[in-house]
TrEMBL record:
GO terms for cellular component: cytosol. The lineage of its organism: Bacteria, Pseudomonadati, Bdellovibrionota, Bacteriovoracia, Bacteriovoracales. PANTHER family: DNA-BINDING PROTEIN HU (PTHR33175), DNA-BINDING PROTEIN HU-BETA (PTHR33175:SF3). Keywords: DNA condensation, DNA-binding. This is DNA-binding protein HU-beta.
């Protein structure tokens, strides 16, 4: 499912039949942007029943260029992390 299909699914919900496509897209974009900005600041976002978003630090490490076999240094960096909630994991 891509973003367009997700928006179409949201609009098919009978309880949201008052929402226009533009409103649904604005809501989804605002939600995603808010999660990104909050995690970037180092704060966690927890959505009960869905999961948690957080920022993790990946340490610097040694790597190998697969094309040449040359050893390279990989810099430390921050990455987003998602951990599914218990209710979501229990579905599977």
């Amino acid at each position: 499912m891509n973003k367009k299909e997700l928006l179409e699914t949201i609009l098919k919900n009978k309880e949201l039949n008052h929402m226009t496509k533009k409103d649904a897209e604005l809501f989804l974009n605002t939600t995603i942007d808010t999660i990104k900005k909050t995690v970037k600041k180092g704060e966690d976002v927890s959505l009960i029943g869905f999961g948690s978003f957080s920022k993790v630090r990946r340490a610097a490490r040694a790597g190998v260029n697969p094309a040449t076999g040359e050893k390279i240094k990989i810099k430390a960096k921050n990455l987003p992390k998602f951990k599914p909630g218990k209710a979501w994991k229990d579905m599977f």
